[in-house]
């Protein structure tokens, strides 16, 4: 046989080829189903490590988790997150945003991208938060989605979400959000943007411990429970763990902070598809007395 005439062989043989194809097909079907139901969301790594919980976080995570909590963030910030479900580049989700809190209200902007050449989706969001009383704040966010599907064209969709944050004490908070309260369509095949309700509690029994528990309900899907815990092991180090149901997924991660920079890592492990790592970088500007706006 002449050199170069031999056909390329998969290093694992035909069985390896079938397994690889099955994995890719299963992963894509899983992500499409999760995206359609709104359950695969680009939470920041701190929330990812705590099972996706974070409705009561009064930190930069509020820009992604609950618009009502933005007004409680102590200083302006910029944030960026990269999420790699199942270690597949085609499924990567990337976000960036910034927020400016004032004395009684706050503004935030963010953008998210997911997909590849054949299918991708972009999201641009504008959030506003207002302190109603010393214990209650409300938030609203406008979300614009641009979806592009190869050979089918592209479509834009405008929707939004509202949020609530209630402080029962300095240690116990309640958070809630409602995404897409008035159902709209994606613009392809009659698919509807999911309507998702979330409610949860955040409890801080000690200054170095944070607990979170939440329930998430897509009106067309079974409810999902999210649980998380965070422990400050050192002045610059946080350790986190969590889980969520439907499907059962374990989560873990850590955070490092030095000066105005904070770097968070997380891994979520799906029992069939494997790990999904994520990382978030936050830059917080110098904290000043909030001005009235």
Domain module count: 1
From N to C, what is the helix and strand string? HHHEEEEEEEEEEEEEE
Widest sheet, order of strands? 1-2-3-4-5-6-7-8-9-10-11-12-13-14
**Shape field:** globular
| Proportion in helices | 10-25%
Description:
The protein has 293 residues and is mainly beta. The protein has one domain (13-284): Outer membrane protein transport protein (OMPP1/FadL/TodX) (Porin, Beta Barrel). The protein contains 3 helices and 14 strands. Strands 1-2-3-4-5-6-7-8-9-10-11-12-13-14 form a 14-stranded antiparallel beta barrel. The longest helix is centred in the N-terminal third of the chain and has 25 residues, at 13-37. The N and C termini lie far apart (79 Å). The model is unreliable at 1-17, 20-30 and 35-40 (pLDDT under 50).
How is this fold's topology laid out?
Layout: H1 13-37, H2 45-49, H3 62-65, E1 77-83, E2 93-101, E3 105-115, E4 119-131, E5 136-149, E6 153-167, E7 172-179, E8 196-206, E9 209-218, E10 224-234, E11 237-244, E12 249-258, E13 261-270, E14 274-284
Antiparallel strand pairs: 1-2, 1-14, 2-3, 3-4, 4-5, 5-6, 6-7, 7-8, 8-9, 9-10, 10-11, 11-12, 12-13, 13-14
